[in-house]
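Extended Data, panel c. Modelled sequence:
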Amino acid sequence: MNNNKILVLSIIVIIIIIICLIMLVVINKYFNTDNHKYETDFEQQVLYENDEEIKLLDNKNKYFVIEKIVSEITSYIKETNGDMEYDTTLIDEETAKKAFQKEGLQIINYMLDNEYKNSNKNVDDTIINMARKYKDYQNTIDKVYIYDKSANIDIYIVYAFIGNEEFNIVIKTDSENNTFSIFLSDYLEKYNYSKIMQTRDIKISENSIEKNDYNQFKYTNISENQMPKYYLNNYIKLMKSNTKLAYSLLEEEYKKNRFSTFDEFNSYAQEKKDIQVSISKYKIVKKDNYTIYVCEDTHGFVYIFKEIALMNYTVQLDNYTIENEELVEEYAKLKTVDKGAENVRKFFEMLNMKDYKSAYNKLDNTFRNNNFSTLQIFENYIKQRVYNNNIINIESYTMVDTDIYTYKVNIQNALNTKEEYNYNIIIKLLEGTNFIMSFEI
């Protein structure tokens, strides 16, 4: 082979080697870039998953576990303060009080999380100082937020009230052991725990919670039919112990039209403060994005709750100040005689609410002019003839015309059902839900 051929072959081999090297560099760069992109995407995904805000609790069974825990710790706060009734037949009151205070303090200690106790060198003093804030032991929950820390561990940030004082705590639950532990409000303040925090900032561990005699719970299956009673009882407690929060929950348009100032609402709430209330009947109206619970208590008062999510609701305290769309639809489905009966109930609802102006405006013009020329005359008459709180029972009716009915109504004193009398009330149905009425004098 001559020298020229050798030279050409050598050049070709060198070129091939260079091309191969270039290809290796390109391929390696491509895969490294792709791996980096993959790793970056993965890291961003992990960061995203751990950068979510905590969620509003919307699980009934878990919510009622939290409520029971809050009620339990409230009772031990009361005990720690020594605000108990004591049996002094075997021991003097002062000795009994000290024993109960010591027991309350010990039990709250048993409920506290080990991480909390490790972060607080003066746990007993913290508990005692915390307990002293509270004098009224009616507890209510405002909002609960949840972070599913792991398969078994849930972290709850709880915004509650004992009386009208804030009671904000963190509760950790262990569903494997059915146990819980508590972090008091100073922990929330120290580590900036709040309802808008990111889940990545919750540093509470996934460690299981060992059982003791005071930190166990069990889930109870809560049906939707139990919610009207719960909402009613919860709101009544707020009206008695935290009137400002109760006022804030009124539906905005209703609030503007019925209780335009807090003082008006507070006066109404104070009138009902000593009345024992329980649910008498209810109806549930399901909609796509919310649920309406219409509750009537044993004194004939109506409460309309619009639930957007669990414990996220607004309330109206009557069914006439503003017309509720869902209840108007229900009213339209009634027979005419039942519409008249509904309006009888609505009239007495106005009287129970002491809303004499609305009741006065429902009187037939001729009847009103002949008997009650002014609102004050009507109010004075009603105060003498009906009870402060009235329970009504419609016993019979007579059809006068296609849109006019006479109803025989039995009226009882809600505070003493032995006091009663009968009234004949005439209802004339008008367009829509409107009506006019008269009654025997």
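The CA atoms of residues 49 and 113 lie 26 Å apart. This feature is highlighted in the accompanying rendering.
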